[in-house]
Amino acid sequence: MNLVQAKVFSVLSIGVSSFLTGVFPNCFVNQGRSPWPLVLSSLLCFGGGVLLATSLVHILPEVKESLPDNFKKYAELFYCAGFFILYIIDEIIHYAYGNSEDEAASLLHDHGHNNSRRNSYGTIRNETRASRQLSAQSFSRAQSDSALFNEQIADQLSINSQPEPSSSTQTANIGLLVALSVHALLEGLVVGTEAEPTKVLLFLGAICSHKLVVSFCLGVKLASSSSISLQRQFSYILIFSGGSSVGILVGMAASTIHSSVTSYVIPILQALAGGTLLYVTLSEILPKERTKWHQQHEKQLAGIFQLISVAVGFTFMTFLIYYID
């Protein structure tokens, strides 16, 4: 398999596989909570470890070797620029579209409490003294159900590294699509700018180990939400799965530029892509997964499983990198 064939294979395989993985949960997930949350979290952490090794152990050293001598001292700056570019994009999206999500969650929260108050007041008016104890128990259960309902809403409004928008807010939907597309496109640049077929396939495996898990989790979240239509679910998954393929094509186009230019362009693009992988791993995947489980005090071992998953993913990818080199 030559270089072009390897990249074309990557475009097709990563696009088709991530789309099928994203729509697969519709076959078995009903509206409600996601199944196997700790397993999915551990898989995401494994993918985070793989991306961390890809970014630090392989991309950064390769960029320093590939840049011309007069640019080698700027390798780390280009790498950090990729980190901050994605950081800035995420903050812009949060500033532009985040308020609508908070308002939607607040309205749902207030609506739940207002219903509880109305139900409790109506019950108190009609209850006799002998049945007040039963009324108190019912009110306690209503509070618990309300808390559970709000917790499920909060879960549905959070998709992995990006929050799921309110179904009634078009701008939030656009924010989600932009964020997912940018992340996936920059990840695809890592594959598209490679110059060796074996490393193209290596990076394809690294991206897929993370992207397929994210696509599956995204599919589970969307399938579990009653406010998102099937057509819209497929649209989200299609955009997410196509982002990396577009990134690979952009990297391939950059590789066809005249050699005097590619000696600068390709290493810089690789550095930017490596920085974005570092951002996705350290600022989105790992912190959000850790926070989600650390808040549940009855599941203290979840953090240990996540740590082991990250270490296994990092070690596995590091071994592959040195083995292929």
Description:
Its main location: membrane. The chain crosses the membrane at residues 35-57, 77-97, 200-222, 234-255, 261-280, 301-324. Keywords: Membrane, Transmembrane, Transmembrane helix. It is a multi-pass membrane protein. One of its GO terms (molecular function) is zinc ion transmembrane transporter activity. It is globular, with a radius of gyration of 23 Å. The protein has nine helices and no strands. The chain is mainly alpha-helical and 325 residues long. The protein has helices at 3-23, 37-66, 75-126, 132-156, 170-192, 197-224, 230-255, 259-294, 302-324. Helices cover 81% and strands 0% of the residues. It starts with a helix and ends with a helix. It has one domain (3-99, 170-324). Helix 5 runs parallel beside helix 7 (230-255), helix 5 packs across helix 8 and helix 6 (197-224) packs antiparallel against helix 9 (302-324). The model is unreliable at 103-173 (pLDDT under 50).
